[in-house]
Fold these 3 entries.
Entry 1:
Amino acid sequence: MRPSPSVASSGDTAAAAPPRMYFIPFPTPGHALPMSDLARLFASRGADATLVLTRANAARLGGPVSRAAAAGLRIRIHALTLPAEAAGLTGGHESADDLPNRELAGPFAVAVDLLAPLFADLLRSRPADAVVFDGVLPWAATAAPELGIPRYAFTGTGCFALSVQRALLLHAPQDGVASDTEPFLVPGLPDAVRLTKSRLAEATLPGADSREFLNRMFAVERATAGWVVNSFADLEEKYIEHYERATGKQVFAVGPVCLVNGDGDDTLERGRGGEAAAAAEAARVLGWLDTKPARSVVYVCFGSLTRFPHEQVSELGMGLADSGANFVWVVGGDDKSAHAPPVLQADVGAAAPGRGLVVRGWAPQVAVLRHKAVGAFVTHCGWGAVTEAAAAGVPVIAWPVFAEQFYNEALVVGLAGTGVAMGAERGYVWGGEAMGGVVVGREVVAERVRGALADETLRRRAGEMGERARRAVEVGGSSYEAVGALLQDVLRPGRRSQ
């Protein structure tokens, strides 16, 4: 991961001093992981990158950053202590996935907002040429305004989902339907996209405080110099162009950023720092996959925030056993009560002897998806998971849970054609999963898993998308050029801070 000869693709800025860039994500793995990859990507193109993290996430992500710095890249982590006690948050929680219940989400959000003056002080003491800020941290776009530093919003999701969300907030077509299951057309998109109220993010539901979200969206639009998106042209080119027109700001589609990890230790320990236990677990999972035939395994993981009720976990586990397929199933850690209890894991193991590997808490997801034994991915359709599957060329079995995940499903299943739906017609409310009941039964799970693994057309489409993703980040590819374009935008006369 050596720097390229120039900080921009065209080479006309090679003589310029390296642009100093800060990257600051919302403190949870689904945001911090791609932002860490993004910082290393820009450092590999000659930027001087500082990744701003809470201490807990700094410990998780420090290994790849340290190796990149040792290899000669200008990259470092600046750790901030989350002002938890000032926000009434106890327990030492510095990452959203560590919160034991939703009641603590409010104090956690307050604590994250209290990072604003700390970040502003950092900018004043060590000014930068650009800030790439998480779109859900609007205060990062206005910190230290006297410095005149250009800010670029990292969207956290793709332009398709952003376009859908924007249309729902602006036009509210969901308010005109009679039931939660009545389809409606999302207006103003390049394609005919239909949704139901049962598949919408909470912020866009009738009765929600959508005006606050709309105002926040417009505030970020006004403050940003452009959008940085973990996506690539062949996945959603029409929506990259659509979002540029809708917001009047340039989109820099630079993904899939997970491809910056290569095939070494950065992939094996991604998200778990240099923990010895993580290395041992990665070796165990990959060693098990080595014993399975090509494309015979379904990988099952729902990210760091999903908390299924026990009844749904049971249906999922027994459906995997009934499918007859090999599977790697990642369930939550022991501190997350809504996840699979050990007795259920034993039941599933007994029902699928030799075919199932249950992993507690964490797995080396990027490495697993790249393994030749993996033939499908059951996922919640968080954007990081969607782009990782696309980069690996693995078909998706989409099971959205909350937020914009149903919109991502509509892209993958309905437009890209690289996935199939598990059949979830409604999601869960984060923190209220215990009351959500069963959304998908074991018979459906078994049927969809068998069908996806046997679908040659689906496999071919996903494989072709993987090839396009890899070409996008190579020299001359669309994402490679987008990185160069953003660096040139930072370096253009009058843009750099004084």
Entry 2:
Amino acid sequence: MDSGCEIRIHHNRRLPDFLQSVNLKYVKLGYHYLISNLLALCFIPLIIITSIEASQMNPDDLRHLWLHLQYNLVAIIICSAFLVFGLTVYIMTRPRPIYLVDYSCYRAPDHLKAPFDRFMEHSRLTGDFDESSLEFQRKILERSGLGEDTYVPEAMHSIPPQPSMAAAREEAEQVMFGALDNLFANTNINPKNIGILVVNCSLFNPTPSLSAMIVNKYKLRGNIRSFNLGGMGCSAGVIAVDLAKDLLQVHRNTYAVVVSTENITQNWYFGNKKSMLIPNCLFRVGGSAVLLSNKSVDRRRAKYKLVHVVRTNRGADDKAFMCVYQEQDSAGKTGVSLSKDLMAIAGESLKANITTLGPLVLPISEQLLFFATLVVKKLFNKKMKPYIPDFKLAFDHFCIHAGGRAVIDELEKNLQLSPLHVEASRMTLHRFGNTSSSSIWYELAYVEAKNRMRKGNRVWQIAFGSGFKCNSAVWEALRNVKPSDNSPWEDCIDKYPVKLLV
């Protein structure tokens, strides 16, 4: 539970204007990523030109070439050695393509829905909140962008609530196993064929770990490489994908499963500190399971190919480190506190991330405009605003972490997106609430359910997390993607988009 939280309590809490400054070191970092693939970029055109020239040769040309080569044996050997060496270096160093075969998002049963009236009535009956705190929660709910059909765990429906360790384990099992069961059914994958497992959950880290619970449930093989990421917040889903990607570069011919979730049961706040009450109003039950593969044979059935992952971490800055902080209030009650600087810090992290990502994804025309204005600003007119590239030319779909209405509003404004571009984020927030690191997958499922995903389309997933982090993943659709069976939007997509009250 963290950075994506809605904190539009006062009108002055907004993302900073990206036009005001651009940090040159992040531009350099983006171009470093680009230049690191220069060998492949240069080698591929050379192969194409050579192939075209060879295809135009007739038998006489080949005979003359053979006679010429017979008298230049040393040159042939040297050239062949260089060619073999170059091909070997290219094959050994080029990254293997990573395919997203399919994914699944958990949808809780209807009896766990938390309409606003029931939410407020239960909050009142617990006896833990004073009138000021109850009124504060009511206002947050009204302004949050959440709808009436979001879910809270079973333990929070009890009066009084029963946030026990057993109940937290039960919530984790329902979410993770529900998503995985559906994933395995849709892909026909035998769980024993999974070679890598990465699980991320920020606030609930029991012993044995969540990854061990999955290994035990599905009897995964003994040499599986399993990882459990904790405390990394709402952006941990992209971090988990990045870790799985790196592991798939090393371990050949295998599958990786990434499970992203958050646990609410033991992390509900029962105090009266305003900055710690906001997560109660926003975070809801949800989780996702993603199947990744480095097998070339899976390209034919995969939905997407991973293109880029860019991660930005501002944890070295004290304000950024403390802006989402789990602590106890003066009464000794534990919760997650959100700093008033959260939106500004999120904006700085986002600016750094997209400045690094830009050189990797933007067309040359946008990059030239950006650098031309940057040079003019640095050398001639320091008051000149830098040109902010049009990311709509690089991406067809945007999956912005559904942390809160204010975050979506400000990204729409600063990136100059249309309402259609942020529709998936708004509707996910309305239907499922802030499901933390899994929200970007509910958003992708929304785009698929609307039949908008076409072959070659590029998707930008972007999420924020405590620490403070901003992470991006870029995917390319390998076909016209249809929603998978048991999509979370299966029985309600026709109701969306809904008109949201402001």
Entry 3:
Amino acid sequence: MASSGQWGILERLSAGEVVIGDGGFVFALEKRGYVKAGPWTPEATVTHPEAVRQLHREFLRAGSNVMQAFTFYASDDKLENRGQTLRITGAQVNEAACDLAREVASEGDALVAGGVSQTPSYLSCKSETEVKAIFKKQLEVFMKKNVDFLIAEYFEHVEEAEWAVQVLKTSGKPVAASLCIGPEGDMHGISPGECAVRLVKAGAQIVGVNCHFDPMTCVKAVKMMKEGVEKAGLKAHYMVQPLAYHTPDCNCQGFIDLPEFPFGLEPRILTRWDMHKYAREAYKAGIRFIGGCCGFEPYHIRAVAEELASERGIIPPGSEKHGMWGSGLEMHTKPWVRARARRDYWEQLMPASGRPKCPSLSTPEGWGVTKGHADLLQHKEATSTQEMKHVLEMQKKVKTSA
């Protein structure tokens, strides 16, 4: 089914279209040298707009129907948190992000989404009024730039996500809400089904999960959300934007508890063929907004678009340089590589890591702390020597008891 031009996100989803999201800008731009790991803030929209613009274009070419403005963690409390000395405001970041997303979206059949995410203020137990004020400040920019729809994404606690949805809903624009949770639910143990019901009641028309877990785990969590919403007699559309990393060993906090996070995750990356399986499973589950988060590169999104090409009625421009199921290998000079130009070869492949002493699984460093715990109180000052000594002691204690 080809996309319908000027239709908005809800019209597309209501018509049964598959809307393909983009990938993980924070991780992709960190690897390219434009984002600092730790803060994970998106000032590159101001300092290096050409890098952000190019990544948008690559996702568009790969088949993305949504250019999500690079506004992740672009609230002033995050930009000023823990030793940051940026002289760039949240408003500047958000405005530049919207302009870049709109510029590239106009080059194809894509919508622009403005997003808000969890805040240091919530973790520090600031009031509902204070946290909502942060979202309202971001929303003002999104309204000024007239984005097509809004996303509340990457929330570990459904309560904060509800507050975000309530603020975004005042815009009159479509609102999607995406939690970074797995089948175990949010950080206070609220089930995916209940989370989804609360988000729909708060005003979200699209609900789902993003980040923290691998594709199949995220699809499972969204299935649980769908069951909860339907059981409550409510209606919603569903979205999923998972990691591009295998995470079978993760606990409820997801990949940030893995010892490999964030600089040693490459051995866990899903292949393009894994993404075909993910896209099909998401589609079978009734999810129609299908994209990616951390670790997703354009070729991963292209695989999603190719897997669902018959349903969508289109092949992305990026497929011009990619034979379906490796068919381009028929042109290879080596006969044993030409023999791999077939679907069954790649579907049955069990990739090796090439690391003789590499374990198949890790032990997550789950400290069991969340909102309300003293260790999560945020501040503007840089991490002190005393604080670092404390976290190292905690880490040693956790590893000893594991």
